[in-house]
Amino acid sequence: MRIGNREFDTANKTYVMGILNVTPDSFSDGGRYNSTDRALAQTERMIGEGADIIDIGGESTRPGYTKISDEEEIGRVTPVIEAVKARFDIPFSLDTYKSRVAQAGLEAGADLINDIWGLKYDSDMGRVIADSEAACCLMHNREQADYMDFEKEWCEDLAGTVRLAKKAGIRDDRIILDPGVGFGKTYENNLTAIRRMDRLMQFGYPVLLGTSRKSVIGLTLDVPADERVIGTVATTVYAVNCGCAFVRVHDVKENVQAIRMMEAIKNS
Questions:
Q1: Is 152 annotated in the active site?
Q2: What is the mean pLDDT of the chain?
Q3: Catalytic residue chosen out of the listed positions 248, 253, 260, 266
Q4: For the chain, what is the HEC assignment?
Q5: Is there a catalytic annotation at residue 248?
Q6: Residue 34: its pLDDT value, please?
Q7: 185, 213, 214, 228: which one is catalytic?
């Protein structure tokens, strides 16, 4: 698939999306990159370590997060998008579930919209993405982790997201799906979502796994957010083995090296 100015061989490779939070309150790096200069320096570092896409977020979506206005979010992300696009020749994603923020971000130069609500929060989001012809990553999410049959309902929910995308006119070659680890799921649900990523391949779209430093790793290994690199890398190796097209991570270097090693083994 094409994202921005780059073609991605999603059927045969796993690519790294580096996380750039320009927020004061993200769960693991809040306040570290919420100025343009610091955001540019972090972007340069991640590109140097092998990131293929940079994902810019202006509102924390950690558990218990406080929503901010569209205007505040736009004010955080658009100057950064404009600055990084002017300096770096790499695709950039905007992490938002709000159509007005997405529209402003696309106008500023974003190449992909990463919607944690899979088009189900804002009814205008599908139209905005379709009109722009940008790529999108659509994630599974629920208000409550309330399931009778998790795997069945998880897939049904994502099928609903795909229907919304098609109804809005988003092209098939513009869509990535995300199993939604850490969103609307119990600890056990999160482990199942990672283990059964192959279920999402049935939809025929590339899959992105986002587990970086999340609570499922912290609970499994009993470690704080800043000590979850090894656990994250383990999930990345599993993602490569499952044929996952993208992983979204904070720690680019370690995950790039793990992917290269795993791909060398697979292709030997």
A1: no
A2: 94
A3: 248
A4: CEECCEECCCCCCCEEEEEEECCCCCCCCCCCCCCHHHHHHHHHHHHHCCCCEEEEECCCCCCCCCCCCHHHHHHHHHHHHHHHHHHCCCCEEEECCCHHHHHHHHHHCCCEEEECCCCCCCCCHHHHHHHHCCEEEEECCCCCCCCCCHHHHHHHHHHHHHHHHHHHCCCHHHEEEECCCCCCCCHHHHHHHHHCHHHHHHHCCCEEECCCCCHHHHHHHCCCHHHCHHHHHHHHHHHHHHCCCEEEECCHHHHHHHHHHHHHHHHC
A5: yes
A6: 56
A7: 214
